[in-house]
Automatic annotation (TrEMBL):
Name recorded for this polypeptide: MurR/RpiR family transcriptional regulator
GO BP terms in the entry: carbohydrate derivative metabolic process
Matching Pfam families: HTH_6
UniProt xrefs under PROSITE patterns: HTH_RPIR
GO molecular function: carbohydrate derivative binding; DNA binding; DNA-binding transcription factor activity
Stored InterPro entries: Homeodomain-like_sf, HTH_RpiR, RpiR-like, SIS_dom_sf, WH-like_DNA-bd_sf
Organism annotation: Paradevosia tibetensis
Amino acid sequence: MSKAILERLRSDKLRQSNSDKLIANYMERNIAELPFETARSIAGRVGVSPMTVGRYLRRLGFDGLDELKAELRRGGTGSNPAWQVKGQMERLQADIKEGKLLAGLIQQQMDNLGQIYELTVAPEWQRAVETLVSASEVYVAAYQNVRGIAQYFAAQLSYSRSRVTFSDGLNGTYAEILDGSVPGRCLFLFDVRRFAYKARPLAEAARKAGVTVIFMTDEFCPWASEVSDIPLVLPGAHGPLWDGAAALTAVMDLLISNVVVEIGHSASERVDRLTQLQDQFGDFE
């Protein structure tokens, strides 16, 4: 942990106003999590504006949060990965007995869901919907803990349109996506911190092969717009426990609903046909 940064945060010079004290206290208590924060997320947690956070960072000696993160990395500051308990277990156990922990987690999920609306009215959202409707083939890929969610997304999307495939990469080549045999392909890639090693190379190779890449990720990803045609960036989790997938799942469901409406009557006809096939093979009651 960088002692120099902590000393500056604790100095009277940087604690002159109430806003200074709120920001300094938050950064000091959560310095290991700062690599996963944004000026906006810090502002929301301490009750000030993102501009106020930006001004404070400049007084701290950094031209924005990215510069502070770089300094923390150089100083050897560790940060909790996505699936590691981030608070002291004794305090968490006390909070859950008092009802504070779960109430706080619910409030966090509500805040994240509120931010999702901004994504649904962004130009990228409509472009993603139009691409998922019009693509000749849709390939879905994901890794680690979000793999199951991506498989569910692919299965749900396949009820509304044909030629949707979850690509697991077990063939070692992703040839089904990258061989260029069919024009108009789309890759829908899911990845959130901690980011999978294969995600960025796959997105870059897909774009090079002429495949449209929709990349759904969280605010902790610094390269989303560099590797995708349509980045869909969600709020990240900042709670005392490991990261959850509520926001990711909610956006996935909203996206599929929007696609179904955009497709129209043919989506209903496809569901009817799939229902007949389900009855024929007897997998459902």
